[in-house]
Design a protein that fits this description.
- This protein is an alpha+beta fold.
- It has two domains: 23-95, no CATH class; 136-304, no CATH class.
- Helix content is 52%, strand content 7%.
- The strands form two sheets. A four-stranded mixed β-sheet has the order 4-5-1-6. Strands 2-3 form a two-stranded antiparallel sheet.
- The radius of gyration is 21 Å and the shape is globular.
- The two termini are 33 Å apart.
- The mean pLDDT is 95.
- It binds iron/sulfur cluster (SF4).
Amino acid sequence: MHIYPSYYNDFKCIASRCKHNCCIGWEIDIDESTMEFYNSVSGDFGQRLKDNINHLDIPYFKLSSDERCPFLNDKNLCDIIMTLGEKHLCDICTEHPRFHNALPDRIESGLGLCCEEAARIILSQKEKVTLLNSKSTDDQILILRDKIIDTLQNRDKTIENRIEDMLSLCDTSLSKRPISLYCDLLLSLERMDEKWGELLNMLKENADAIDFERFDQFMKDRTHEYEQVLVYLIYRHFANSPDTQEALKRARFSAFSYEILRALGAVIYYKTGDFDFEAHVELLRLFSSEIEYSDENLYTLFDTI
Ligand code: SF4
């Protein structure tokens, strides 16, 4: 059984139009069968492949001094696609930004928020997102997960009330701490992009001055954006927990993520007088790259929140 959200097939990489190309800043591992093929390529391009791959236990593309994939050309297009064809991309490049969770009776797939185009697609869903091909199950974590998604999509309630309902369904709570302590926790984690640290410091310095009610009023016609983020986080992280206790941590992580994303949105609004759709996309991209795409950061938060 292959489950995916209703927007899943809408994704198409925007390549050279992407502001934060995923071929910059990430070391990409190459799977075995693609590596075998690359080893068989002859001529100048074969030599270029050999020169630009680190042949360690798990081979990966060597990044240039400005952190670009060596096959990303100056028009921000991929020379492997242009020379060998898209079917010869390695698994990671082919799949990104899709994720797949292998559960006992199903594969659940989705789009990851670390890609700006995926974030745009997810945030722009105005209707409740449905999971396609979903069938009834007797797996208790999945049953609870589906109830949580229904709760988060209950548009008769505020986002905060929906989160409270989610936590009480899980018989847990999020201990409220001052926003500056949340910032300290996030600032103590491994950092990929200095912009993330600057944003957290800006929030920490201005936390007491922000008028959150004014920000909530500004966002009142865009609560579906927060709903989509919460549904995404629960869909992506809850059901692949090894046990119920771990799943509850992930519900708390989702509630925490909302708190911090709302506060970061509020500080951007406080400092610039605006927080438009594209600013929200960029915030989510940054959050996801820093937190969701670092196992170390993600599991530290699961265990600390
Ligand atoms: S981040 Fe997304 S849109 Fe940008 S190049 Fe990568 S896959 Fe394409």
